[in-house]
Design goal:
The complex is a heterodimer of chains A (about 110) and B (about 110). Chain A is mainly β. Chain A is built from no helices and eleven strands. In chain A, strands 2, 4, 5, 6, 9, 10 and 11 form a seven-stranded mixed sheet that branches. In chain A, strands 1-3-8-7 form a four-stranded antiparallel sheet, with no helix packed on it. Chain B has about 110 residues and is an all-beta fold. In chain B, the strands form two sheets. In chain B, strands 2, 4, 5, 9, 10 and 11 form a six-stranded mixed sheet that branches. Chain B has a five-stranded antiparallel sheet with strand order 1-3-8-7-6, with no helix packed on it. The chains are: A mainly beta (about 110), B mainly beta (about 110).
């Protein structure tokens, strides 16, 4: 079974803090994705990566950056957390050439 | 501009009856469609998919129908069970191998016992 794990299920941070969200997949997938889910807005793509050290902006990259130093790990960084970044963050991975993405359990982030 | 639309935010059905969830899309380059199911506080799980070369795909109680001319797809769940109560997301992928998915906003299905 594909397993995608996220470092925290729940996180509370203060405005202005730097926040790291970690995602690890164990299926040797080339593609990795970060989304946020907000009520009434569905899943919106923040950043994605097709390979190690490669990254591309999604639909809402502002305020975020990412790092992919190893194939299995994709990190989302909030350089200076703001209250409008309070959300559910979802990581996903997929094989190159395949559309089906497999999701982690999500991290619910609250920025105070 | 919303390329994948799920116009019903919620749907309520009785256990044992059919649930029909609808999805419309605007981008004619979409050639692969997926449905995901999401329980609260969990990540979405893949349910079923369909390629644009087909008009129907079945997996147990779940069937997805694709009408390319209408740019419409639907997910049928028969019979519906209380455990099917979740948010269902429709997603689409465009030609060109980008492998990105565009998601709809979701439909919350409630199956009443």
């Amino acid at each position: 079974d594909v397993k995608v794990t996220q470092s925290s299920r729940y996180l509370v941070k203060r405005t202005g803090e730097k926040v790291f969200l970690e995602c690890v997949q164990d299926m040797d997938h080339e593609n990795m994705f970060w989304y946020r889910q907000d009520p009434g807005l569905g899943l919106r793509l923040i950043y994605f990566s097709y390979d190690v050290k490669m990254k591309e902006k999604g639909d809402i990259p502002e305020g975020y950056s990412v790092s992919r130093e190893k194939k299995e790990r994709f990190s989302l960084i909030l350089e200076s957390a703001s209250t409008n970044q309070t959300s559910m963050y979802l990581c996903a991975s997929s094989l190159r050439g395949k559309e089906t993405q497999y999701f982690g359990p999500g991290t619910r982030l609250l920025v105070l | 501009d919303q390329q994948v639309k799920q116009n019903s935010p919620s749907l309520s059905v009785q256990e044992g009856r059919i649930s029909i969830l609808n999805c419309d899309y605007t981008n004619s380059m979409f050639d692969y469609f997926l449905w995901y199911k999401k329980y609260p506080a969990e990540g979405p799980t893949f349910l079923i998919s369909i390629s644009s070369i087909k008009d129907k795909n079945e997996d147990g109680r779940f069937t997805v129908f694709l009408n390319k001319s209408a740019k419409h797809l639907s997910l049928h769940i028969v019979p519906s069970q209380p455990g099917d109560s979740a948010v269902y997301f429709c997603a689409a992928s465009a030609q060109g191998g980008s492998e990105k998915l565009v998601f709809g906003k979701g439909t919350k299905l409630t199956v009443n016992p």
